[in-house]
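Exercise: predict the fold of this chain.
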Amino acid sequence: MGGPYAADRLVALLDAILQRSGSSPEEAAIVAANLVDSDATGHASHGVCQIAVYAKSLELGHLQPNRHARVVRDEAPFLVVDGEVGYGQVIAREATDLAIARAKAGGACVLALRNAHHIGRVGSYGEQCIAAGLIGVFFVNVVSRPLAAPHGGGRPRLGTNPICIAVPATPGHPPFLLDFATSAVAANKCRVAAASGKEVADGLLIDERGAPTRDPGVMFRDPTGAILPFGGHKGYGLALACEILAGALAGGLPALPDNLRQGRVVNNALAFLIDPARVSDVENGGWQALTDAVLDHIQDTPPVPGGDGVLVPGGPERRSRVLAAERGITLDPDTERALHGIGGALGLDVPAFLGA
């Protein structure tokens, strides 16, 4: 494993790579910061490793630099935005800002985001809602190589299709941020395990014949294996809901074979932004006091023997950010090699950027 590296060094390197790949300084800064922050929050699958995916997408013409969120329909409470296959971190950020403005004005907004290149960690857009004092609920589909099998199926048919629910901070607790893929494990964790010669836990993968396996290499052979949904039929149901709500309804681009392109990653999303003050009663302190009571009650649960106690969604990411600031960010060998290869090909002194 490479590093650890200071976050600002990684941001500077990615910023330089992106600018030399055609992005404006503003776009490069947004994408670079988003990727490094994903690593800092403990979600490396959506972090620096993605620069290799983006480089390939640029080469194939599946990713268009310097695009912005284009409003297709704006009829309160509905907002439809097209990303024109631009960098998803820019498109989704702009679309969320537009939805925030409408939710603040009217109390709620239903955002349909279509045709954005990979938007990265969905929790970052939940954090935008939190900063604005709004609740955000996001359903996202992934139009790329299918990775996940439906419950009871022996072949991959779905993406990792994430869901995010964000709730602002209360007087007694920090924000609630639930952000998870509907697959049992991230594909990038399989890649890292395969590169390290390690097996994964039981119950996560099936091979190309549909048989259970602990070999992560099955995800990188042809024909591939598949990741199972988390929680069996429950995770599968949520993944399928994302495909219908985000893919078919919001984006008009479900992950069907005719929509797949080699080397392309497109995200579509259906999001609901709500002003909690428009919903909650003010009696007994309103929603914030009641939320604090709920969270206090949950966190007061006695821990299991040898356990660390009950966590609330969002807590692990905050803790990971603190540790990353103190200790730096470690990259897997494949990602480090990709940075040197891509940066070097663009004429950058990668070791100097990394302080190596």
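Check your answer against the key: The chain has a mean pLDDT of 95.
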